[in-house]
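Run: sequence + heme C -> complex structure.
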Amino acid sequence: MRRLLICLLALWTGLVLAQQPPTVHKDPFRGDTAFSDSARPPPLTGAENKDLKRVRSYAMQPPTIPHSIDNYQIDRFANKCMMCHSRVGAGESQATPISITHYTNRAGVFLADVDPRRYFCDTCHVVQMDVQPRVASTFEDVDAVVRRMRADAAKAKAQGRGK
Ligand code: HEC
Ligand code: HEC
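>> structure
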């Protein structure tokens, strides 16, 4: 009897679940496309090539690349980026030389040339594009946070004096 009841309960649950409409997952990149279908991505826009540096969002952000890097070879034979961004190359190109972190290995030792961990520049640095973020963000620059805290502190002080 008990076994029969359990079987009936399982059957009933199965029937109820089968009648539920499938959950629709929304993903900003896929839009309404179902998981079983391939989304058609928006066409790529070209890299900005204006030589204008963008402000870094935080001190340790890898700066975005303010120039196009089409057909720049980075493989075991050559690293085009280092032609201009190495310590020596910067003299002629006037590019920002890669910082000391790029010459430091994981033991903290400073090397003569770029550390292999930093060899493939485009794993961290991306070209700038004129596009809007696909996902909303409430990120605030630390400068804005500090300014707000200072203003709040000044207001609190002024109110204290008023009493
Ligand atoms: C022909 C020389 C040249 C080559 C090759 C080159 N760059 Fe540059 N890069 C520059 C110059 C010059 C600047 C300074 C801004 C400008 O003039 O565009 C710069 C700026 C940058 C910056 C911004 C630095 C900052 O301080 O904000 C990054 C990041 C960068 N390049 C990365 C790369 C990467 C990655 C590659 C290879 C895929 C590369 N560059 C190849 C010349 C070069
Ligand atoms: C593992 C991630 C990573 C890789 C790979 C990498 N970088 Fe960076 N890069 C950073 C970060 C993070 C910063 C900002 C902090 C710093 O200087 O370390 C930076 C800073 C820079 C800067 C600005 C330096 C300055 O003094 O302001 C330049 C130029 C640059 N990188 C070029 C390159 C080039 C060229 C390569 C390839 C040879 C490369 N990076 C590889 C993460 C990376």
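>> summary
Residues 142-162 form the longest helix (21 residues). The mean pLDDT is 89.
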